[in-house]
Amino acid sequence: MRALSLSILATLLTAATGACAEPAPEPEPASASAPLTLEVAALDAKLTAAFDAHDLPALMALFTDDLEFFHDTGGLQHFAEVKAGFGGLFGQNNGIHRTLVPGTLKVYPIKDYGAIELGSHRFCHIEKAKEDCGTFAFVHVWRKSAAGWKIARVVSYGH
To answer: What is the pTM of this model?
Structure first.
């Protein structure tokens, strides 16, 4: 009887494990022409314009006060640390600029909150008289409130 119980348990565990082994399909982002995607793409363009102009107040106005910025090599930073970091970066006067990599933007709605923006961006600057560029992946969690859209969470990785 005990052998039968163990056999049944093993069969159930194998079936359950097999069911979990199938990866969940990746959800479909909003289409490129969907209003939400167009809105987030415009917000991303505003972010890029502020970054490229090295306009720290305009850039920081796009982030919530409770910002959490997760960087794979820099760790977790909050609003004041991010602001200081961008200020230092802009102070180097090395022409740093950001470009959203075409075709990488994906937008997913978050019910009653805002949207998730996924993509890759390329940063270039002059170092030792040569252009130095890097392409990195990012996730922006945009929060929509009565005051408008702001980024509440950033995940930056692939550095």
So the answer is: 0.81
- Angstrom distance (rounded) from CA 91 to CA 63: 20
Dist CA 77 CA 37 (whole Å) = 27
Tokens read off for 59: 């850039």
Query: Please, are residues 62 and 47 in contact by the beta-carbon 8 Å criterion?
Result: yes
pLDDT values of the chain reduced to their tens digit, one per residue, 159 residues: 444 343 444 444 444 444 455 676 777 777 766 899 999 999 999 999 999 999 999 999 999 999 999 999 999 999 999 999 999 999 999 999 999 999 999 999 999 999 999 999 999 999 988 999 999 999 999 999 999 999 999 999 988
**CA gap 84, 67 in Å, rounded:** 13
Contact assessment for residue 150 and residue 64, using Cβ atoms and an 8 Å cutoff: yes
What are the DSSP calls for 102-140, one per residue?
TT--EEEEETTTEEEEEEEEEEEEEETTEEEEEEEEEEE
